[in-house]
Amino acid sequence: RASAEVKKDRTVVKALGLEVGGAKVAVIAGPCSVESEEQIVAIARILKGLGATALRGGAFKPRTSPYSFQGHKEKGLQMLAAARAATGLAIVTEVMAPEHVPMVAEYADVLQIGARNMQNYQLLQAVGDSGKPALLKRGMSATIEEFLLAAEYILDRGNPDVILCERGIRTFEDHTRFTLPLATVAYLNEKSHLPVVVDPSHGTGKSSLVASMSKASVAAGADGLIIEVHEDPKRAASDGAQTITPAAFGQLMAQCRRIAEAV
Ligand code: PEP
Ligand code: MN
């Protein structure tokens, strides 16, 4: 069960050097899409130097348009494995289909379930059976109740390692790509023992808002952040508008560390 009433101690999810739910704020950073081995190894080295605790990058991309870049698939997973070999960073990457779970689990340290798949129950069960920790993103129109029940599909298969991720929801607002509700963080911390991370990149869709929402997330009690970073955001294969540079990421890390000490 995901409920804090059923399990009193807080769940800490560990994968290589990544620890989510422990004393420190975990920072999962990297490009939206894995573009090439050179790109992902280079950014992984930079991010490791700036204090990131895990590397993100999509090999299977759930794109709104079927004509957009869909990811390098298994080759992308191999590129991520090369980045882990070079840096020791844990790999967080999305799996989109139940039949791909064994393949993605061979390369990844944490299996990401995307917002669009939050209620793909067969995928949730397959990830539950995989033996790998899961990072479950909130569906863009899912209630918190539905979000927690989706997490229970994974827990129910005997996999206790579930990280909840608030990544923004659809509202009438259109000044940001999604609306990022940070009360979710505090609410989930009351309701559930599972660790909570925030994705300020998808949550806002705007690189200029990522730093403030990251800091607010940490202040609200988030166990971690997942942030899109690219050496040249304008040239990113996907989600460039919400992607920050390594320099901005470095500044943000220092600020978040100070906030984490204060809360
Ligand atoms: C992503 O992390 O790049 C992504 C596609 O996220 P979401 O499922 O939250 O849209
Ligand atoms: Mn993205």
Description:
51% of the residues are buried. The protein has 263 residues and is α/β, with parallel strands linked by helices. The protein is 37% helix and 15% strand. Helix 1 packs parallel to helix 2 and helix 4 (121-128) crosses helix 5. The protein has a single domain (13-262), classed as TIM Barrel (Alpha-Beta Barrel). The model has no long low-confidence stretch (mean pLDDT 97). The chain starts with 12 loop residues before the first strand and ends with a helix. It has an 8-stranded parallel beta barrel with strand order 3-4-5-6-7-8-9-10, surrounded by 7 helices. Strands 1-2 form a two-stranded antiparallel ribbon.
Features:
263 residues; alpha/beta; TIM Barrel; two-stranded antiparallel ribbon; globular; binds phosphoenolpyruvate; binds manganese (II) ion
The helix content is: 25-40%
Shape: globular
Give me the CATH fold name: TIM Barrel
Poorly predicted runs are: none
Ends apart, CA distance between termini:
28 Å
Average per-residue pLDDT, rounded, comes to: 97
The CATH superfamily turns out to be Aldolase class I
Strand order of the largest sheet: 3-4-5-6-7-8-9-10
Radius of gyration: 17 Å
Number of strands: 10
Whole-number total of structural domains: 1
- SS content category: alpha/beta
- Order of H and E elements: EEEHEHEHEHEHEHEHHEH
What ligands does this structure carry? phosphoenolpyruvate, manganese (II) ion
Strand content: 15-25%
Number of helices: 9
CATH class: Alpha Beta
Largest sheet: 8 strands, parallel, barrel
Protein name: 3-deoxy-7-phosphoheptulonate synthase
Keywords: Transferase
GO molecular function, one term: 3-deoxy-7-phosphoheptulonate synthase activity
Organism: Paludisphaera mucosa
